[in-house]
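Database export, one record per block. Field names are fixed; values are copied verbatim from the stored entry.
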Amino acid sequence: MNALTRIRYDGRPAERIAYAVGAALFLSGVVHALVLVATGGSWLGPLSMRKAVTFGLSFGLTLASVAWATSFLTMRPRLRGVLLGAFTWASVTEVVLVSMQAWRGVPSHFNFGTPFDNVVSMTLAAGGGVLVLTVVGFTATALVEPGPDAPSLRLAVRAGLVVLVAALATGAVMIGRGVVAARGGDPQLAYTTAGALKPLHAVAMHAILVLPALAWILRFTPHPEPHRLRIVKTAVAADALLTAVIGVESFTGIDPLAAPLPLMVLSALAAAVLAGTGIHALSGIEPAARFARVLNGKARGR
């Protein structure tokens, strides 16, 4: 409730716009999913409506997550507004162009068949560059400035942003590989080489939500800050291990679902530990006791 109140009354215009746009992008992903199911379209291939689904859902969630997580940073309001505004603009551009190409029945990426498609592909690449630069700006600020007072939340925000940089950098590598292959006259190779990095891109994309959300939830538990910090450190280590394993598999062309047993054990262990930290946090929430403490505090303040 405190977070919702802070968003409503203390949120700056750029932040409120980001939340609204993120919700709209997420809704577009849901609508495209319903269309895909209703029409019986394919979930595979560069012409699938699936791309409109995944881009809408992923960018909607990521935009809202970035707006929320960076609200804890101690940075100049104007700088934060510029960075968040640029991230919002780039997110909208990516989703709108990918969705438009899906409805046109043509590939959105690595498509240089017509002057218009060439402009779309290059605009998507430029939008990806803007995303990387804005997140690098947020990450640099998070690492330099004091940030949130609670060490656990500060670590979660910093780690989430670092992993998000890795996710966007992976996306840039995917685009670079694909463009080289497509310009070389082999568009199918472009989709194959770029697609091999999708698991890493997907896994790393949402640490910016998972890690700060864990630290935030722990604030509603009776655990002292040192305990919360240990839990967040455990989650950060587990997320780093999971991202590293998936990264090795992606860059070596190994299917995560058919990986060698040692890699599968490592990724499963990391995922289990990460999930365990979330369960631990949720199980420690004491809503009734916290509500009573809030009421008592208000009563004493009268």
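Remark 1: The two ends are 22 Å apart (CA to CA).
Remark 2: Residues 297-302 have pLDDT under 50 and may be disordered.
End of record.
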